[in-house]
Amino acid sequence: MRVLVSGATGIVGRFVVEHLLAQGHEVVAGVRDVTTALPFSQPVETTLLSLDPTAPLPAFDGCDAFVHAAFQHVPGRYRGGEGDDPDGFRRANVGGSLRLFEAAKQADARRCVFLSSRAVYGRQPAGVLLSEDMEPAPESLYGIVKWDAEQALAALHSDNFVTAILRSTGVYGLLPGLPHKWEMLARDYIAGRPMEDRVGTEVHGDDLAAAVLLLLTADAALVGNRAFNASDLLTSHHDVLSELQQATACIHPLPEPLNKSLFSRMDTARLRSLGWHPGRNARFRADIAALAERLMSDR
User: Annotated active-site positions, please?
Assistant: First the structure.
């Protein structure tokens, strides 16, 4: 299968590209600059891709599928990623995305997967399980543009252009040349700075990429025009640092743990019914151990 991946050099995009390559698929990396060295383990074809609605369209020719992982935002921020330009943020991430969806369909791509977010659910009562059957109620502009883009893609679904939405939670995992999601947290802890707990749902990038491939290859009747939650663990800074403490023998105190029962988990039964099996605690522990090794080697 030949797959065009937008945002290919971003965190999620890199996990998706590497997973597709490892499974023997051909990748076209949608990038903003074709002169920049690519960070992938194997050579890939590139095509210029921008969310600017006036930019030239990428080369979808010969692609069987499109994975849309690109997102225009202020560096390091998703919620609040509009900065001081909410109109441009919406124009790029809704209008620009719709333009790419339409181009993929026009080029006879057979599948399209859009990387959305749990932010489309907005604020729900404490501890409620987030299900794909819930009516989205985003309150942040980030969640609103993701929901708008979801609806734009759904309107293009057909027997010949099978669309699917992947609503991801936070993504963690080591990538060469990029800081880990919890790297600054870990460095601050090792340095003895005061810590406060924070709870959230997380999924490893490799598991998210495996979910993308499932939606590209599963029976169209099971995935077409449907949304799928992608989440693995309900974890916290306390949990991360507890693992780090064991890996580094650091003696600094851990933050006081928060009550996790007040945070909403995501129901992933729909994705698991397709055969998705995330790495759970074993992958989490291995990842923090690898982060600890990186930090110790830098000292």
Answer: 142
